[in-house]
């Protein structure tokens, strides 16, 4: 009599990696997104549940619980336990990860698929209980793409709802103090600001010294010399910290809300609110440390001093670029920009130089690039400009010819249309395949294989089209910028005899400093003009 033995399928590819009879190494991942008492109770319940669940399975070997509490799920960075779990999976300590749902695992679609695919390559499965998805199954990726996108949208919606709730509180004058630590104030059990008498004396000293005529750096040096600690415990005071105290409206009893906002719910990157969103000022919200008159006087003095030294906040771009070479000199050794400095020489005059920021801040060990004399730099630009001016027609035409040749523009027209037709054709094939799968879902594995193949084709075709479109737009941009440069050159009647800051700003994108006597001027259309010269010690300019 025939005897039939059933050979059961392997539900987890990771089992094939283990020796015969070896147990499956199983762990669980738990997470809650806030540190509230209710959420932390849920967190503890998850840990207890999965510990018992895994340990009761005789065919499983308990590989531990990885649990992040009070952490957002929209990005994997900063999730200590999650990242430790992935490292342990790399080390072969895990075969299977169990988690409650996709949203508990990660809410960012791109991160979710990236991590799952990576774990899949390692032979590690992830099982999502709520969705009943095992990531090693054939149909899992298609389902996960849809479900992870839904989880990401839920996260975005939740983030928007929280923002809306905060704004409604702000509009009604309800105070929300985000930070728990300000110099001069403590937060009481109700979240209200209470004056800290010892620290308040430091705040009063800072305002008093500024009104008396001291600058922020001088006040910072004074506080450091007096062995007074900052609110974070640092013994060294910085001018920026003093400036932050002097401009903080809390010290006159007011509270401005929504001074910053979260730009993206996925990255959680915060930005200073410069008018993008409304701000809400609550006057007389708490006990003041200084009078309103003192606070207003300090703001007035700061504005006057800023105007005197050309450092108005509203004119920041102009201030940062008030010299033709500001932000444009780049060190070829370390990649840092150069800063303009004034050196005291023997005698009443000062020498203006441009110095690598790395060399200036960290010393010769970090970067050996020496300073470039300002007069010499301007003289070299004059020489580079005159070279361009004398040969402008030849140089600009040759440059554009080389750009066109490099981008292979000749073949774009016909090939671009062929790519568009191919993209349409593959798109229709994908739609037909999905319609067929909806009618008959019995051939899931074949569908997934064919779908992935078409998807790769479509991605490849789109990349090719984007490259061609990008080349076309890049050429148009280069031509436009070259025409602008030609217009500047045509407006010059003779060669340049002395440095012209306006022309330099109009032409130069950046200056690569190879050595203090070897510079490359890169113009705004991409054309580079290289200049080498001899510099004698103690002599400014060119010889």
UniProtKB/TrEMBL annotation:
Domain Recombinase: 182-308
Protein name in the entry: DNA invertase Pin-like site-specific DNA recombinase
Superkingdom assignment: Bacteria
Gene Ontology MF, one: DNA binding
PANTHER family: DNA RECOMBINASE-RELATED (PTHR30461:SF23), DNA-INVERTASE FROM LAMBDOID PROPHAGE (PTHR30461)
Record-linked PROSITE patterns: RECOMBINASE_DNA_BIND, RECOMBINASES_3
The organism of origin for this protein: Anaerospora hongkongensis
Keywords, alphabetical: Coiled coil
Residues in Resolvase/invertase-type recombinase catalytic domain copies: 25-173
A Pfam family it matches: Recombinase
Coiled coil: 444-471
């Amino acid at each position: 009599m025939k005897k039939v033995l059933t050979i059961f399928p392997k539900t987890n590819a990771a089992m094939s990696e283990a020796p015969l009879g070896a147990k499956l190494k199983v762990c669980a991942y738990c997470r809650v997104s806030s540190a509230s008492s209710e959420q932390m109770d849920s967190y503890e319940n998850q840990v207890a549940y999965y510990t018992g669940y895994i340990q009761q399975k005789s065919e499983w070997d308990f590989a531990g619980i990885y649990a992040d509490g009070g952490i957002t799920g929209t990005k994997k960075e900063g999730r200590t336990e999650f990242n430790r779990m992935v490292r342990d999976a790399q080390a072969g300590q895990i075969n299977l990860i169990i988690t409650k749902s996709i949203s508990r695992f990660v809410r960012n679609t791109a991160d979710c698929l990236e991590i799952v695919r990576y774990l899949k390559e390692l032979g590690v499965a992830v099982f999502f209980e709520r969705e009943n998805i095992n990531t090693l199954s054939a149909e899992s990726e298609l389902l996960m793409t849809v479900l992870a996108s839904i989880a990401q949208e839920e996260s975005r919606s939740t983030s928007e709802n929280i923002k809306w709730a905060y704004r409604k509180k702000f509009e009604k004058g309800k105070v929300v103090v985000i930070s728990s630590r300000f110099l001069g104030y403590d937060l009481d059990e109700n979240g209200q600001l209470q004056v800290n008498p010892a620290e308040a004396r430091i705040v009063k000293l800072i305002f008093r010294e500024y009104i008396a005529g001291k600058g922020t750096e001088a006040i910072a040096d004074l506080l450091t010399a007096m062995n007074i600690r900052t609110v974070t415990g640092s013994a060294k005071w910085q001018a920026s910290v003093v400036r932050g105290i002097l401009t903080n409206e809390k010290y006159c009893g007011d509270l401005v809300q929504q001074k910053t906002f979260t730009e993206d719910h996925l990255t959680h990157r915060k930005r200073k609110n410069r008018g993008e969103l409304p701000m809400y000022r609550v006057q007389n919200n708490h006990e003041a440390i200084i009078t309103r008159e003192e606070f207003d006087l300090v703001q007035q003095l700061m504005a006057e001093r800023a105007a005197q030294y050309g450092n108005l906040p509203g004119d920041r771009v102009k201030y940062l670029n008030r010299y033709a070479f500001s932000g444009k000199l780049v060190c070829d050794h370390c990649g840092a920009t150069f800063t303009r400095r004034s050196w005291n020489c023997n005698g009443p005059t000062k020498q203006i130089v441009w110095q690598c920021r790395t060399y200036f801040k960290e010393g010769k060990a970090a970067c050996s690039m020496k300073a470039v004399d300002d007069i010499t730099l301007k003289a070299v630009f004059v020489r580079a400009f005159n070279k361009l001016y004398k040969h402008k027609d030849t140089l600009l035409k040759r440059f554009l010819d080389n750009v066109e040749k490099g981008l292979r523009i000749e073949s774009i027209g016909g090939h671009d249309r062929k790519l568009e037709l191919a993209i349409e054709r593959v798109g229709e094939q994908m739609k037909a395949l999905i319609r067929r799968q909806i009618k008959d879902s019995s051939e899931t594995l074949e569908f997934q294989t064919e779908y992935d193949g078409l998807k790769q084709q479509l991605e490849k075709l789109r990349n090719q089209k984007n490259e061609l479109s990008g080349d076309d737009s890049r050429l148009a941009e280069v031509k436009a910028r070259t025409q602008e440069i030609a217009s500047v050159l045509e407006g010059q009647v003779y060669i340049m005899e002395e440095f012209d800051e306006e022309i330099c700003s109009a032409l130069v994108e950046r200056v690569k400093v190879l050595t203090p006597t070897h510079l490359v001027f890169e113009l705004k259309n991409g054309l580079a003009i290289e200049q080498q010269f001899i510099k004698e010690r103690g002599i400014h300019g060119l010889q």
